[in-house]
Amino acid sequence: MSDFDLDLRTVEEHIDEELDIEGSIVLGVLDGETPEDEWVEAISKGNVLVLCVEGDVNELASGFARDVKEAGGNLVHFRGFLLVTPPGVDVSTERL
User: Fold this and answer.
1) InterPro entries under this entry (predicted)?
2) Does some domain include residue 11?
3) % of the chain exceeding 70 in pLDDT
């Protein structure tokens, strides 16, 4: 055996320090009833939105989509849902 020394407790402590993930996954309905600034605020807090779209997605998201994109977030329309992520959270569409 080699003289390789691995202290798993120290590794776990560093992993916990590195994982500074904030936010939640927020489920909602995009139907025009929720004020657009509430969606922007949710994203700015690090939340991921999964919104069931009830209507024209382009019309319903037009009030906040630009703000999200300019801040570095992502919007993906998939099977009747709009996924909205904050900056630093990417949506992989490679398997579609």
Assistant:
1) DUF5779
2) no
3) 78
